[in-house]
Write a structure and sequence with these properties.
Shape: flat
Helix content: 55-70%
Radius of gyration: 30 Å
Oligomer: single chain
Length: 139
């Protein structure tokens, strides 16, 4: 048996106005000591504490996100089948026109397009078989 009635909030008054979540309270508590904490963290990192170094670098200098690059692969536009498109991408990677990680991402994208098409083809084939079976009275 449920503690609450369906369609009725378990907290009808909601969160009290002006209340703060625990992260906000923690930030406010540390705000005053933050400069000293950063100095200590920096000193530990400079002394060889790898965890302090990683924390400092991850928070102060996060890794840069990759930017989208435009690559011209004429063979890709001319390719008619998914296999031809994958071959064009592999050729571009082999020739250094395309970074390997971008080639993998593109081939994975092609693969994700092929799966629904294969399902559609299988469904159409099954429907056609069922239609013939019904017409011939098999089943």
């Amino acid at each position: 048996m449920s503690k609450f009635k369906a369609g009725q909030s378990g907290n009808p008054n909601g969160r009290p106005k002006g209340s703060k979540n625990r992260h906000t309270e923690l930030r406010e508590a540390l705000k005053e000591d933050l400069p000293e904490l950063l100095v200590t963290l920096k000193e530990r990192a400079l002394a060889g504490d790898m965890a302090a170094m990683r924390l400092l670098l991850d928070r102060v200098m996060p890794s840069k996100k990759q930017e989208a690059n435009t690559v011209d692969i004429p063979e890709l536009e001319e390719a008619e089948s998914f296999q031809d498109k994958a071959d064009a991408i592999l050729s571009a990677v082999a020739l250094g026109k395309l970074a390997p990680e971008h080639g993998v991402a593109l081939i994975n994208a092609i693969g994700s397009m092929v799966k629904p098409i294969n399902v559609d083809v299988a469904i159409a084939k099954k429907v056609e078989e069922d239609k013939w079976d019904n017409m011939l009275g098999i089943r």
